[in-house]
From TrEMBL:
Residue spans of biased composition, Basic residues class: 10-20
Name of the molecule in the record: SPOR domain-containing protein
Domain SPOR: 99-179
PROSITE patterns hit by this protein: SPOR (PS51724)
SUPFAM superfamilies with a match to the protein in the record: Sporulation related repeat (SSF110997)
Species whose genome carries this gene: Pseudoalteromonas obscura
Amino acid sequence: MAQHDYINKTPKKKGQKKQQPKTQKPFPKVLAAFAMLLIGGFAYGLWFIKEHADPAKVQQAQTPAEPTAVVENKKELPRPPPFIDDMKKAKVEAEVKVIKSRGPFQMQCGSFRTYEQAEKRKARIAFAGLLSEIRRTEGSNGVWYRVRLGPYDKKRDAESDKNRLQRIKIVDCGIWGWT
């Protein structure tokens, strides 16, 4: 990079500006001639149409025509196929299967060592608009506090609530049969 000597440079005076000579662009003669040619051609075209118009057609265009009634041609519909009548008379017999419900379902959304942690999870679930309960269970590895929701008659209802909780970032819920 070249070095500049800024020390010996004298600053510009306030009122002094570098003036550039004003240069006028030459008049575009070709463009002006082309524009005049276009305007003249347009004017000649209008004059030619006016002078060579058919007087009968001009008179016809100036008088409004009476509206004529539009006649619609109604087409006849094709006759319906014969199986339509058969369908109206037919009876459908179907065997209805009753799906056996697997029983009520529950959803567990956490298992904690302390009751305070379980209460925090229960509060977050309550903000989603769902009711939950905390159950204390004792096992071989100590006391656990489980946060549960339910019972649900259908698994679809439990899945709906699980999706609702996933939207507020509670993702560790499991669904299984009621015990």
